[in-house]
Write a structure and sequence with these properties.
Elements (H helix, E strand, L loop, with lengths): L1 H18 L7 E4 L1 H7 L6 E4 L3 H6 L6 E2 L7 H8 L6 E4 L4 H12 L4 E4 L2 H7 L7
Parallel strand pairs: 1-5, 2-3, 2-4, 4-5
Length: 130
Amino acid sequence: MLKMNQLVVGMLLFLSSLFSCQQKGDFESMNVEDFDTLIQDEGMQRLDVRTLAEYSEGHIAKTININVMDDSFSSMADSLLQKDRPVAVYCRSGKRSKKAAAILSKKGYKVFELDKGFNSWQEAGKEIEK
């Protein structure tokens, strides 16, 4: 069952990459529904790039927090993330996550970014953790 789920997710990722419009860097921006579907895959790494204060106020479940504005973002990402697993990244509104996605994709990560950020996640009524 797990292999079938991985196969389905892999096919979805492949097909979505064929039809998506790319941002600067080699990553894909996604709407809330597509992002939500994507992160259901247990192999997906979830990354919140907001400040610790923002993260503490609420975040998507099972995410790690690395502030993209911190000078050590790149080295922290390399120590906490695995390059052989895709990364789903978000911030508050989508600006910082695009910056993080560009940095990570240049380092060799496969990256998916929540286009309008955590704000759009909350507006869609999606579940959050505090």
